[in-house]
Amino acid sequence: MAYTGQPHSTIRRTSPVMDNPNGDLKALLIRVAEHADKAAFAHLFQHFAPRIRSYGLRHLGSEANAMELVQETLLLVWQKARLYHPEKGAPTTWIYTVMRNQCFDMLRRRRASKEDLCAEELWPVLEFQAEEEHLSGGEDAVLTRQMAHYLGTLPEPQQQVVRGIYLQEFSQQELAERLGVPLGTIKSRLRLALQKLKEQVEQGHD
């Protein structure tokens, strides 16, 4: 099957109506695995594409990278659906694992090409426990209470950047324009925020 990505403006924000989302997603994924069912894949695309895009914006820092993550993740879902084993977990868990692995691969490629790594540096700090619920649309609050406390210790400009990118889901460029500061300032604040948050998280785990 030839996979063609869709511009983010055409990604549907809602999934098909499902009385039992996990059960229906599992059935769809099994149909893709066993029958290469294009209609089932289309439903999976509608459900997961906006969630993967949201994740990509937070971790990769730009619309282009987020859409690349959508395309590469869902292409792998189509190609490797046969590797999903229903008895081992929910379809959301399997697909989000594919997504996270693909995101790590993209970040490693960026390191190799010496691109800016702000998003990668923030990764270990902002991989919150509530992530899967957030991706599934179950919770709006991504920060745990402890992380919220850590965030509150940062200077306000650094808090603005972290909240803008990881909670409000702006790209770095969008946030720079919104705050009226240079893109380099956003990147610098992210780096400083990372260092402080990482130190606090590590101290909290000692």
From TrEMBL:
InterPro entries: RNA_pol_sigma-70-like (IPR039425), RNA_pol_sigma-70_dom (IPR014284), RNA_pol_sigma70_r2 (IPR007627), RNA_pol_sigma70_r4 (IPR007630), RNA_pol_sigma_r2 (IPR013325), RNA_pol_sigma_r3/r4-like (IPR013324), WH-like_DNA-bd_sf (IPR036388). GO terms for biological process: DNA-templated transcription initiation. One of its GO terms (molecular function) is sigma factor activity. It holds the Pfam family Sigma70_r4. Residues 44-111, 151-199 form the RNA polymerase sigma-70 region domain. Keywords: DNA-binding, Sigma factor, Transcription, Transcription regulation. Belongs to the sigma-70 factor family. ECF subfamily. NCBIfam families: sigma70-ECF. PANTHER family: RNA POLYMERASE ECF-TYPE SIGMA FACTO, RNA POLYMERASE SIGMA FACTOR SIGZ. This is RNA polymerase subunit sigma.
